[in-house]
Design goal:
- The structure is a single chain.
- By secondary structure, the protein is mainly α.
- The protein contains seven helices and two strands; from the N terminus they run αααββαααα.
- Strands 1-2 form a two-stranded antiparallel sheet.
- The protein has one domain.
- The termini are far apart.
- The longest helix has 48 residues.
């Protein structure tokens, strides 16, 4: 009589906490040390990012805003070799349409009018957020869509050739987009980063480091 073969049960992958590998007795010493160092570095980096996320985001926004003005000024002064790499770098965040950009003299700014308004609003409100970061509540998603809709309408109608936008509309709709993004995302980021700080502090506590 043939014995029925038992069906092989699928093996489920076991999650391994990188912070705990260093304390497994069967793991090689060098792997324990490497895992411990990598885990602690990640926790410390997460704690730093959670504490200083607003400073980091403001630095990025103000960097692009500053470069937008400095590039044409540098070209006006004859520093073209210095200005060109920064102008090209800004193309990562902006299409830099010459017809939709401001000029200093004959030199194009590194951000178009709409992007200039977006980064100006994000930079300014990001600095003011420090005052109200524990009190400001995020807007609802439909509020966000309502504030973003003018930019989408202005951009798409222009893209399909139905009408031509103006610099005033590009500035206004860009500013509304910046306001919507700030009011919807920044308060939520603050909450998420508070949770991340709590997690990092718990893993950096003496009871966890002295195992």
């Amino acid at each position: 009589m043939l014995e029925e073969k038992e069906e092989a049960k699928p093996k489920t992958a076991r999650y391994i906490d990188p912070l705990s590998i260093a304390f497994e007795p069967q793991v090689a010493t060098w792997r324990k040390e490497l895992s411990n160092r990598m885990g602690r570095f990640w926790v410390r980096f997460s704690h730093f990012a959670a504490r200083h996320w607003l400073w980091l985001v403001n630095a990025v926004n103000l960097f692009f805003l500053s470069v937008a003005f400095l590039v044409p000024l540098a070209e006006e002064a004859g520093w073209n070799d210095l200005a060109r790499p920064f102008f090209k770098f800004c193309s990562l965040v902006c299409v830099q349409n010459p017809a939709h950009s401001f000029y200093f003299g004959q030199h194009q700014m590194a951000l178009c009018e709409r992007c200039l308004a977006i980064y100006a609003v994000l930079g300014l409100l990001g600095l003011l957020f420090q005052i109200v970061r524990h009190r400001l509540r995020p807007i609802q998603f439909w509020h966000y869509c309502l504030l973003v809709a003018p930019m989408a309408l202005d951009g798409f109608t222009q893209l399909f050739g139905w009408r031509e936008s103006t610099w005033e509309l590009r500035l206004l709709t860009g500013a509304l987009f910046g306001l919507a993004s700030f009011w919807y995302m920044y308060p939520q980021l603050e909450v998420w980063m508070e949770h991340l700080k709590f997690w990092a502090r718990r893993n950096l506590a003496p009871s966890n480091t002295s195992r």
